[in-house]
Design goal:
The complex is a heterodimer of chains A (282) and B (250). By secondary structure, chain A is α/β, with parallel strands linked by helices. Helices cover 39% and strands 21% of the residues of chain A. Chain A has one domain: P-loop containing nucleotide triphosphate hydrolases (Rossmann fold), CATH 3.40.50.300. In chain A, strands 6-7-8-3-9-10 form a 6-stranded mixed β-sheet, with helices on both faces. In chain A, a hairpin with a 2-residue loop joins β4 and β5. Chain B has 250 residues and is mainly α. Chain B has a domain of 145 residues: MetI-like fold, CATH 1.10.3720. Chain B is built from 11 helices and no strands. Chain B is globular, with a radius of gyration of 22 Å. The model of chain B has no long low-confidence stretch (mean pLDDT 91). The chains are: A alpha/beta (282), B mainly alpha (250). At the A-B interface, β6 and α3 of A face α8 and α9 of B.
């Protein structure tokens, strides 16, 4: 593992493009109106303000349809901001960029490319030389434990392996910010547990600002330092809960302080889930 | 061994049809003025193959077909993908494509002959126009259906909009495009032979109509069978090519 790490580190420093390191995200009174092709526009997000600190692991938690993914896509620059502004460091978000890597629930790997080709794609855009690209791609494929599957197509991989490949592709370009859209939501329980562990261990070694969207309370408490709980439509930030524990790892899951926190967050989210449900019912 | 037997058994209905054909004509149920016996047609085919004229005409036809189809694939794919992702192009071309889609393409044959003449060009243009529409529509539908997360992934990995078009949208639409080309391939044979039947100085369509006019039915049937076999072989070859290209789908 140490060898792998050393390899990936040297490859990382070889990158010509790097950003100033200030990876804090400021969300200032951001609104978003969703316009369906037919029908009335829907106010998906209303006046959201939130500050995500440099190298922080923040979870966006809320009932389905509260706009947490939409907020993530706005940070990513994928959707137009209809009101307010989002700044990263001192630059305003206007379009997607390699400083913000994203991992989607359904992996979004290029199905016509092998694992290696998927990982190399972003490295080509960085302008790396061929040998550097290959070396760095291999380092990240090893990092997510997909060694031996470099030449497999996504259709030949299990869900967990696809998500590892997607993670490798995103991490390889070394974004300062990692946006994760329910990344483990499509995985079975055991795989999800393993992936959570690995994400934590990767994050502890390569500190990045992580914005992690989930509707799983336990996952949010376990992984993140802070949880921003969102209210039902139109989405607002309802409460920010601090989740720092003296140490993470499997033992934490059974500790009383962890269970208390889960219980507390659950109660806040439950009220919103009830509101969301009655809204869809009417 | 069993595999091969299964594969061959698929052609059993064809063999039965040939046997039925032979029996009906030999027993006099069908007059050989209407339908010459299968074996006579085959004998005639070997004579035509031996003296070689058949291959000159086949070659001429295949060049016309390939030119028209090749142009249709190049233009149709480009147009379809651009229509899907560049709004002004969509606004201009979508109604045109939709309007011309249901027009029977063989109706263009006499028109093109008046406009361009009776040579190779008019036939190539007819095949091009006829085959372009299914390719355009399939490329358009395929490109429109691309999952947005693929596009977003590419953009966040540093791809520009133009790169996304070539590197994500086009390959993601490839299965649809290839299916559209298969339809166009069948259509190209149809248009090729029809346009040559009407007016031509060479090509398989010319041979068929020439033997028909001269009353040499065995040769005419031999050429009709040849065209069918060519169309079938082209489709099989294309299918193998398509499965190879789309191997990543499994």
């Amino acid at each position: 593992m140490n060898v792998v790490l050393a390899k990936s580190k040297s490859a990382v420093t070889a990158a010509p493009v790097q950003l100033d390191g200030i990876a804090s995200i400021r969300i200032d009174g951001v609104s978003h109106e969703y316009r369906p092709p037919h029908g009335r526009p829907v106010q998906a997000l209303e006046e959201i303000s939130l500050e995500i600190r440099d190298r922080e692991f923040l979870a966006l938690l809320g009932p389905s349809g509260c706009g947490k993914s939409t907020l993530l896509y706005l940070i990513g620059g994928f959707l137009p901001i209809t009101g307010g502004r989002i700044t990263i460091g001192d630059r305003m978000v206007t379009e997607p960029g390699p400083d913000r890597g994203i991992v989607f629930q359904h992996f979004a790997l290029f199905p016509w490319k092998t694992v290696r080709e998927n990982v190399v794609y972003g490295l080509k855009k960085l302008g790396l030389r061929r040998e550097d690209r290959e070396q760095r791609a291999q380092a990240y494929i090893d990092l997510v434990k997909l060694t031996g599957f470099e030449n497999s197509y996504p259709s030949q991989l299990s869900g967990g392996m696809k998500q590892r490949a997607a993670l490798a592709r995103t991490l390889a370009v070394d974004p300062t910010i990692l946006l994760m859209d329910e990344p483990f939501g499509a995985l079975d329980a055991q795989t999800r547990g393993l992936m959570q562990e690995e994400l934590l261990s990767i994050w502890q070694r390569q500190r990045k600002t992580v914005v992690f969207v989930t509707h799983d309370v336990q996952e949010a408490v376990y992984l993140s330092e802070r949880i921003a709980i969102m209210s039902a439509r139109p989405g607002r930030i309802k409460e920010i809960v601090d989740c720092t524990f003296p140490q993470r790892g499997a033992a934490l899951l059974k500790s009383p302080s962890f269970m208390e926190k889960v219980e507390y967050v659950w109660n806040v989210v439950r009220q919103e889930a009830i509101v969301a449900q009655t809204e869809t019912a009417t | 061994m069993i595999d091969r037997a299964v594969r061959l058994s698929r052609y059993l209905p064809l063999i039965l049809l040939a046997a039925l054909w032979e029996a009906l004509t030999r027993l006099g149920v069908v007059s050989d003025l209407v339908l010459p016996p299968f074996t006579s047609v085959m004998t005639s085919w070997f004579t035509l193959a031996e003296n070689g004229t058949m291959f000159y005409h086949i070659g001429t036809s295949l060049i016309r077909g390939a030119s028209g189809l090749g142009l249709a694939i190049a233009v149709g794919t480009t147009l379809g993908v651009l229509m899907a992702w560049v709004a002004p192009i969509r606004v201009v071309f979508r109604p045109l494509v939709q309007m011309f889609y249901p027009v029977p393409k063989s109706a263009l044959i006499p028109l093109m002959m008046i406009w361009i003449g009776v040579g190779d060009a008019s036939k190539i243009v007819v095949i091009f126009l006829g085959c372009m529409l299914p390719v355009t529509m399939s490329a358009f539908n395929g490109a429109r259906g691309v999952d947005r997360v693929l596009i977003w992934s590419a953009r966040s990995l540093g791809a520009t909009r133009g790169e996304v078009l070539c590197e994500v949208i086009a390959p993601a639409a490839l299965p649809d495009i290839l299916a559209g080309i298969r339809t166009a391939l069948a259509l190209s044979f149809l248009l090729l032979v029809s346009s040559e039947l009407l007016i031509s100085r060479n090509g398989v369509g010319y041979l068929i109509s020439n033997y028909g006019d001269a009353g040499i039915y065995t040769s005419m049937f031999a050429m009709v069978l040849t065209v069918s076999a060519l169309g079938f072989a082209a489709d099989r070859l294309y299918l193998a090519f398509m499965n190879r290209i789309l191997a990543w789908r499994q």
